[in-house]
C-alpha cells in the first residue's frame, strides 16, 4: 500500500499554486488573478482522482506547465489558464463546451488545439508529418497553442524517468524530431537545448553521463581561464561606464556530443566548449552602437578572426535572434567565441519572442506589435511551404540532426537510426528476431532489398521468412551498432551450433571406426583435412564441407594407419609433424601444368564439381580413366584429394593469354519486382555480352531467387558481372555456387 499523506499533499498543491501566482504577478492585469484561480480549481477538481506515473497528484503537471509558460517563456494569463486546463478535455469528463461556457472562446480554441496535437501522436499514422504541418498551420492562428504544447512537452521530458522504457524512447524520439526543431525555429534556445539534452539522457544515457561528468571535472580549469580572459575586459568596460554582466557557460551536452560525432574527436579535443557572453544593459535606441563599442573593446585586447564575425543585430535571424558574435584569439593560443548582446536581446534569445512583451518602447507602449510581427512571420513560414510535408519537416529540422534519419513503422511509430541506415538496420531496430529473419522490406509501399538506404520520413514495413538466416554479407550494409552486434552474435551462434553437430558426428564416426577419441587423433584429423583449429574441423564436418565418408578415408590414410593400430610403430603426437607427413605424401616433384598451353602435351579437363575458371587457384589431379582434371583449391573435394591421393596431384596454373569461355553458376537473391528479370538479363547479355546457358527463377512471397549458368572469360570478368548485377535495384546478393 502506498501511504500518502493527503493533507500534506493538499498543502503542497496550494504551495505550488501560490508560487505560480507569485511568478505571474508582475504581468497580471485586473481580473487576471481571479481567472487563474478559477482555472486552477477547475483543473484540480477535474483531475482530482488522477495520478501521474510517478505517483504524484496529476495537478502537479498542469501547474508545472503553467509555471514553465510564465517563468521560461514569458507568457501571460491566457497561456497560464490554458496550461492549467490543457489536459482537462482529453483526460476528464470535461467537454470543450464546458470550457467555452466557463472560460470563453479564446481559451476554448487553444484547448482544442492542444487536444488535437496530442491526437496527432497518439493515433499516429504515416500521415504524421502532414498532420503536424496542418496542425501548425491552423493553430498558429494562436501561437500560444504551440508555446503551451512546448511547455507541456518540456515538463513531460523532465519527468520521463517514471515512464516505461518503450514510452521513453517514443517520446524522446518525437521530441528530437519535431519539438526541439520547433523550439529552435521559434527562438526558444533554452528550451531547445534542454529538450536535446533530455533526449540524449534517455536515449544514450552512458554518453550523456560521461559528458556531464567531464564538464563538471573540467569546471575549475575553465573558470580560471575565463576569469583570466575576461579580467582586462571587465576593467575596460567599467572605465566606459557600462552596466554589464559576463557569463562563460559551457555548451549543451547535446551540442558537445554532436561536435564529438561530427568531427570524430574525444571530449578533450573540443576547443570551443564554452562561449563568453557579454550582456549589457542599455536603452533601446543605444543598443546597436553600444554592442559595437563593446566589440571594439574586446578586439582591442584580442585579435578577432574576420571569418567568424556574425552581425545579427543589423539583420536579426528569422526567429528573432539578435546578437553580435566574434571569435578571438586568447593569450594562450586558443580561439574563444564572444557573444555580445543587450539584456533585451539575451532574454529573447533564451526565452523567445514572447519575452519581448515585457519590454516597452519609448512611448511607454508595450511592444505587442513586435509579437504580432513575429507571429505573422511564423505563419508565413508555414504557409509559404508548398512542398511536401516531409520536406517541410526536414527543412524545419534544419541541418541540426544530419547524423540521424527518422523513419516510421507501419503503425506510425517514429524510429531514429544513424544516417545511412538500411532496411536491415530498421528490422534489427524493431526486434533482433525480425532482423535475423528479414528478407526485404516495403518502403512507402514499394518493395526494396535489405540493403536499401532509408530516407527521412520513410515508412518501413519489414518482410520476414522463417527460412532466412543472417550471413557475413549482411555486415557490409548495416550501420547501427545494434544490428552489427546482433548479426555477429547470430553468425557465431549458428556456427557454434553447427560445430556442436560436427563434433557429435566425428565422435560417433570415430567410435564406428574404432579409433580412440584422443587429442592426438583429433590433431591427426585436423592435419589430414588441413584445417587450423579444432573448432573449424567441427564446423566443416557439421556443415558438410567435410563429408562423413571422408572420415573413413582418414582411417585408411597410410601415415596414420599404423598409429591407429596403436601397438607398435612410431607414435607422432604433434600436429606439425602430421602436416609434414601430408606434405611429403603430396609429392612436390611434378612440374607445373600450364592450362591452355599444355593442351597438346596432356589430356586435361575442368572438374565439374567446382567449374574452375581462369584466375581461380587450381591444381591438376591425375584420374584413373579421364586424364588430368583441374579443380579449384577451394573445391569441397580438395582436402580429400590432396590428403589421400597426394601423389596424383599436379601443380597447375592458367596460361595468361587465354580466350575461352568458362561455365559458372550464379545465384541471385533479391526482392521481386516487375522488370527485375529483364534488368538482370539486359546486363548479362547486352551490357557485358555474356552468354547465358540456363536460368531458373523462383519467386516466393515477394522474394526472387534465380540460378543462372553462364560463360565468362575469367575471374575478373566474373567479378565485374557480379558487381553490375548487385547494382540492380532489388538485387540483394549475387553469389557463385557449385551445383
Ligand atoms: Mn500534458
Task: Please describe what this structure looks like.
- The chain is α+β, with helices and mostly antiparallel strands and 739 residues long.
- It has 29 helices and 20 strands.
- The strands form 5 sheets. Strands 1, 2, 3, 4, 5 and 6 form a 6-stranded mixed β-sheet that branches.
- A hairpin with a 2-residue loop joins strand 18 (691-700) and strand 19.
- The longest helix has 32 residues, at 481-512.
- It is elongated.
- The protein starts with 5 loop residues before the first helix and ends with a strand.
- Mean pLDDT is 79; it is low at 120-127, 357-369, 384-402, 566-579 and 585-590.
- The chain binds manganese (II) ion.
- The site of manganese (II) ion has 4 residues, from loops.
